[in-house]
Amino acid sequence: MTIENDNDLEALKRIGVIVARTLAAMGKALEPGMTTRELDEIGRVLLEREGARPAPALTYNFPGATCISVFPDIAHGIPGDRVLKAGDLVNIDVSAEKDGYFADTGSSFVMPPKAPKLERLARDGKRAMWAGVNSVRAGAKLGDIGRAIQTFADREGYTLIRNLASHGVGRGLHEEPGEIPTWHEPGERRRIGEGLVFTIEPFLSMGSEWAVEGDDEWTLRADTGRPTVQFEHTLVATKSGALVLTAA
Amino acid sequence: MTKSAPPRQGWRLFAAFALVVFASMLVLQEALARMLARWLAGVWVTTLDTLLRIFSGPISG
User: Fold this and answer.
1) Which positions ≥6 away from A159 have C-beta within 8 Å?
2) Do A243 and A142 touch, CB atoms closer than 8 A?
3) ipTM of this predicted complex?
4) Quick one: which of A29, A143, A197, B20 is 20 to 30 A from A154 by CA?
5) Between residues 142 and 181 of chain A, which touch chain B (CB distance below 8 Å)?
6) What pLDDT, in 10s, does the model give residues A170-179?
């Protein structure tokens, strides 16, 4: 969506803070021995307490309030009986709706004891996302986002998953302008309109470039099985840069 | 919740399309050339036949 008035912005800020706080709380709650279903329940309770509805279930009948993916799964993991272990690489994706407005955020967490290579990957995954966020400006090209992220990934020796994209969000979970590449795509010449609401969520990997189907109809894995992280914010494009809506 | 992006293969599709068009033009050109050659050959035979009929005298038996 494109923001048309102050009410739009305030409503998006409200749901942005809700999903951000839910994600932060779920990250803090991570501990060995708990199941991903128990972790999801924490998220569900927090969202419902704020009067928000989980977006994946609302939009796609996803069987969970949040997406929880334990490596080698990288996205759209279904919360279930999987027990979390020390050293696991866990991705949590929280998206929700309140008063007709949607926001979407996500983060990868390395559970202690942290393997140095995973800790570095997680740190750089966040830096890759910020490289994209910092390239946003109303009037710039959408392709500038992917180019900034790709430049960072190339410089640091990483790859990017090239079939999981960012997207427009606001009045729906996935809406116009559709998929936004978080990798360099020379043909991406669309311009960022002022007030455009969208996500930036690169998947930074230690060698994978493609997401493939996992064990069920939802879960996605990296093609080569190399460690992969994702960090995500919902933001609004302004003339002076990105206004991040999902900062905790 | 991330969005699955269809692979962007625009340039590959364009290249494939250009290749098909080029190959079709070659095939068409060859077919046209054959057709023209057949027509010219037909014209030549007809012309020669007509000329021979005009200028040839009866064959003495």
Assistant:
1) A153, A204, A205, A206, A207, A208, A209, A226
2) no
3) 0.77
4) A197
5) 162-167, 173-174, 178-179, 181
6) 999 999 999 9
